[in-house]
Amino acid sequence: MTVTYKDWHEMLSFALLTYRTSIRTLTGATLYSLVYGMEAVIPIEVEIPSMRVIAKSELEEAEWANQCYEQLNLIDEKRLTTLCHDQCYQQKMARVFNARYNGPSVVRETFSGGAIILSDMDGTENAPLVNADVLKKYYL
After folding, report:
1. Is residue 140 a part of any domain in this protein?
2. Which of 6, 56, 81, 115 reaches 20 to 30 Å from 65, CA-CA?
3. 86 with 27: CB under 8 angstroms?
């Protein structure tokens, strides 16, 4: 099968499945598990059974329903864990961002291609070159 840009609608369901079952860096969980309280069984696991699918298939229906109910009861705990992970991730990103900020600077020299040499307000030159795209202009 040749895939072209005209076939996007046929591939959309696969892209959505991948998006919903991939672990997000921000939350540390999949979107599917946050909504339904358990991980999704991907199509390949049905064709070639994984240990998880084999274990579920050997359960009685009542036992399987009981386990699903227990997992739903744990969904609040999973969401709190995700919230904690989210807050830690945001703090980490804030630390990284704030570590790069050196305070107000003056453009000392510009080069072609957008490279800039900055200096502090007292005239001390900052060593690394900076890309002009990451600077924010400030007017007095």
Report:
1. no
2. 81
3. yes
The domain of 46 spans 5-100
Number of domains making up the chain:
2
Tokens of 122: 């007292």
Does residue 122 share a domain with residue 71?
Answer: no
Q: Is residue 68 part of a domain?
A: yes
> Do 80 and 98 meet the contact criterion of CB atoms below 8 Å apart?
no
| Predicted confidence pLDDT, tens digits, the chain (140 residues) | 567 778 888 888 888 888 888 888 888 888 888 888 778 877 777 677 666 667 667 777 778 778 778 877 888 888 888 889 889 989 998 888 777 666 678 888 888 888 888 888 787 877 678 888 877 777 76
Task: Using the CB atoms, write b or e for 92-115: b if 16+ within 10 Å.
Answer: eeeeeeeeeeeeebeeeeeeeeee
Do 17 and 60 lie in one domain? The reply is yes
> In one letter, which amino acid is 21?
T
- CA dist., res. 140 & res. 132, Å (int): 19
